[in-house]
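User:
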Amino acid sequence: MNQPSNDARLSAPTGRLQSLDAYRGFIMLAMTSAGMGMGQLLDDPAWGWLAHQFEHEAWEGCTFWDLIQPAFMFMVGVSMPLAFAVRQARGESWTRQFLHVLKRCALLCVIGIVLDSVSQRVPTFQFIRVLQQIAIGYFLAFFVLHLGWRFQAAAIVVLLLAHPLIYMAYGGSGTGGPWERDHNLGSAIDALLHAPFAELTSLRIFPASTGGYVTL
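Assistant: Predicted structure:
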């Protein structure tokens, strides 16, 4: 398969999407500034409510800070049709585009693994960090990107329904139901992946997350 079908052909942009650039800049500023210093106001009676938005919720609930990772996923999703439309316009084959995706995904995973290993002070292989999650989503989205809007709409519906239904069918391994922290389907899958390597001391592979994060 060298070229996508005509009904899946993407429209090449005529310039940069300024709204996406502005959104990316805002998210990067918030992240690199560690919440623009709002953490200093957590105990302030007047501004504590706003400062709390720059902290992660322990589990239940959602703050602005919890939306940083989804924001990056959103930006990747918006930019993919634009970027690959340009590649199509240049005459790149599907295979060449796929190799580009593989290279970028591998690079994101390597960077994420290096950052995890440095922070843990031991080689750590896991896929819960933002970079690895972007790589997984980027890789899977590429296959849907060229299949036309009908298939894309169907994929969205299936994912939105299947993911929670599978979690609910699993039911959880604790007493808090399918969404209980560290006792849900995602944590169970990560535990299975980690089990063969549990005895390793010089290498951590799919270790249990301390923040309730899961690979899937």
